[in-house]
TrEMBL record:
<protein>
    <submittedName>
        <fullName>Winged helix family transcriptional regulator</fullName>
    </submittedName>
</protein>
<dbReference type="GO" id="GO:0006355">
    <property type="term" value="P:regulation of DNA-templated transcription"/>
</dbReference>
<dbReference type="GO" id="GO:0000976">
    <property type="term" value="F:transcription cis-regulatory region binding"/>
</dbReference>
<keyword id="KW-0597">Phosphoprotein</keyword>
<dbReference type="InterPro" id="IPR039420">
    <property type="entry name" value="WalR-like"/>
</dbReference>
<dbReference type="GO" id="GO:0032993">
    <property type="term" value="C:protein-DNA complex"/>
</dbReference>
<keyword id="KW-0902">Two-component regulatory system</keyword>
<dbReference type="InterPro" id="IPR036388">
    <property type="entry name" value="WH-like_DNA-bd_sf"/>
</dbReference>
<feature type="domain" description="OmpR/PhoB-type">
    <location>
        <begin position="1"/>
        <end position="98"/>
    </location>
</feature>
<dbReference type="GO" id="GO:0000156">
    <property type="term" value="F:phosphorelay response regulator activity"/>
</dbReference>
<keyword id="KW-0238">DNA-binding</keyword>
<dbReference type="InterPro" id="IPR001867">
    <property type="entry name" value="OmpR/PhoB-type_DNA-bd"/>
</dbReference>
<dbReference type="InterPro" id="IPR016032">
    <property type="entry name" value="Sig_transdc_resp-reg_C-effctor"/>
</dbReference>
<dbReference type="Pfam" id="PF00486">
    <property type="entry name" value="Trans_reg_C"/>
</dbReference>
<feature type="DNA-binding region" description="OmpR/PhoB-type">
    <location>
        <begin position="1"/>
        <end position="98"/>
    </location>
</feature>
<dbReference type="GO" id="GO:0005829">
    <property type="term" value="C:cytosol"/>
</dbReference>
């Protein structure tokens, strides 16, 4: 079981929860979240994501990652304008944050 913030992921059963609620992810969505959570706190480059999640080194557009990321954020309750789970590090890649850095208010 992998746990980061309020997200739990069981790689063997391929199941995901936010708190006590199970979140149903497609195969690629699960693979994307799994890859990011395994490397939580570290930036994962788009090249690495294409290699590890889509098993390819050839890609012409990052739209594939962006579309799947949008679906994942929506399902996990991560606001794309102010994400607290998965952040985009411009020009470098994506990072699954180990802590929620939002200011309460």
């Amino acid at each position: 079981m992998i746990e980061v913030q309020e997200i739990r992921l069981d790689p063997d059963a391929r199941r995901t929860w936010r708190g006590d609620d199970e979140v149903v992810l497609s195969r690629k969505e699960f693979d994307l979240v799994h890859c990011l959570m395994v490397h939580a706190g570290d930036i994962v480059s788009r090249d690495d994501l294409m290699r590890e999640v889509w098993h390819t080194t050839f890609w012409t557009s990052s739209k594939t990652i962006d579309v799947h990321l949008g679906w994942v954020r929506r399902k996990l309750g991560d606001d794309s304008r102010h994400p607290h789970l998965i952040t985009t590090v411009r020009g470098q890649g994506l990072r699954f944050e180990t802590q929620d850095h939002r200011v309460p208010g």
